[in-house]
Structures are given as structure tokens and as C-alpha cells.
Amino acid sequence: MRHIFSGPLFLGKNLEFVEDGFVVVEDGMIVDCGRGRKNKAKRHSIIPAFINAHTHIGDYFLREKFTGMPLDKVCGKDGLKNKYLNSTGDDVVIEGMKSAIIEMMRTGTCCFSDFREGGIKGIKLLRKALSNHDGISAKIYGRPDNPDEAFLGECDGYGARSIRAEKIKRKKGKSIGIHVCETKSGELKEAMGFDPNFLVHMNCAGKEEISKVAGMDIPVVVCPRSNAYFGLKLPDIPLMLEEGILVCIGTDNAMTNSLSMISEMEFVFRWFMDKVDAIDILKMATVNPAKVFGWNCGFIEKGADANLLLLDESFLKTPNPYATVVLRLSAQKMEIMLEGKYACNC
Ligand SMILES: [Zn+2]
Asked: 294-319: per-residue pLDDT in tens?
């Protein structure tokens, strides 16, 4: 099916704002796009759909179960989350994951990268939840249920709990992501020994550690709402950007945060108001994670997957359309197109 849209949009991987542009969608792809008005097109403001660079949707069924409790009591190998994950029926966990996926789709997310607990069995539960939802795509970062479990053949990479919790092993063609410096600094050196493809958190990292990561060209996924929830230091995003790190944002544990990238972007913009530009925040939710995880979306370009958010034409017509997206999208009605099909109208 062919769709033609025209109106204000962000064009290409630099998210260049075009006041009057067009997008042609066919067979799930963007087959043409550019500047100028198209006849017989549907008029919209057009934004690339979001990529959530870090989730744990397996714990969605535990939402608000641990409100007010500190991180060390809730997370970690011996934390309450793990206790409940191990003692809850598969159906309950899968139903929670399905709800998490719907929450993502409703808030404009087309792809997500999930750290999945529970070894091969945990990976299979997520695949089962995903099988009901065409259009949304996931990269699954598993971890072994026991030290000898050969789980990497079943997923996209290794999502390590921490440098202390497990012996991280590499497999050819699989990437590694590690939670680092979430509650304290000084973990970087050991993490680097595993040659990670990306790091998660770095909120407690000092200047020296941030410079080192920048020098090694390792992307960082930050989850500021999660850090704030647990009363932790927030990541120094302005310094990360200044040092040239490719920064992505993720919503982290579904038990403590909604899966809305709109909320995450707004939180970052308000917290760092005069220190981080809105366009850079939008990149952290689109083109940057597309690059890190290898998705062909997060940008409006010929040949990209047609994952788009369609809003009222007037929405982006402001002096700063990037700020408009990160500050006001939560209050807008939008149609969400995933792989060229209308996924929801909400
Ligand atoms: Zn995490």
C-alpha cells in the first residue's frame, strides 16, 4: 500500500527541519522524501518514530511493587525483582511484556533494546510476547541463567548486570552491553576489559572516566528518569556531548518507569534546560540508537523503514520545532506508522 504525506518534518540523519516536505511510503519503506509540497498528500507534521535504547520489560508485571525502596534492595542478583521474576508464572511475565510493548507503541516507539533476565528461557518468553505485535522490533540482550549456559546463540548480545555480577564472555558477531557506574564511579577500567560495544548508565562516572569512554568511541545509554527514581546522581549529559560521546536514552526498568520515550526526552530537556539542545535529545531517541544497534529507521530518508509519527500539521510550526517535540508531544494525538502500516491512533 502506498501513502503520501506532506508537511513540516525532520529530514535525514541530521534531523534537518524542513517547513514543507514530503514522504512517500510503499511496502513498509520510505521510497521517496524531500523538500516541497506533494499534491494529494495527507497533511501532517512528520517525525521519525523513537528507539528506546534500554529496557527491562520483563519486570513490567512488578510495576509500583517497590515504590520508595532503594536500588540495592530492589535490583541486583539477590534483589526483590529477581526473587519475584524467579517465582512468578510465565503467563504473568508474558502478559506484562505484552502490555509494555503496547505502551511503547502508543508512545511512538518502533524499536527497543531489552536486557533480558532468565537465560534462554527468559529470551523465549520475550520472543513469545513479541510474536503478537507486528511492526515493533527488539534487540534482545540476554544473560546466562547459570555460568555455563550457552545462551548467546539465542539472542543479539550479552546484557550484563554489572562487572561484578558475572563472568562476561564474548561470542563472535554478538555485542556486549554493561551496566556501569550506576551507583558509584571507578568501575570503568574493569568494564573495558570486556571490550563492550556500549555502556549503560555512567551517571556516577567522573570527568576522567567520561573522557576515557569518549577516547575509545564507546556509545553510552543514559536512563535519567531511572536514576532520579532511585535518588542517584544524574548522568553528566552535557559533558558526554562535549567530549563527543554518542549518547542514547532508554527508559530502563519497566517496574519503575513508564516506557515512554516522550517522558524521557522531556525529563532530560527540563533538567539540563540551558545545557543540552533539544535537537541533541531528539537524536538520542532516534538516529543515535539506530547507529548503535543497527536499525534502518529513526530518520526520514529514502530506503529507511517507514516508522513514522503523524501529527496535526500545525504541531511543528513553532520557532523551535525540536523543543516542541521534547516538551509537548505527550499532550498530542498522533497516528503511529510502523513498517508502513498504521499501528495505532492515540
Ligand atoms: Zn538496566
From this structure: 999 999 999 999 999 999 999 999 99
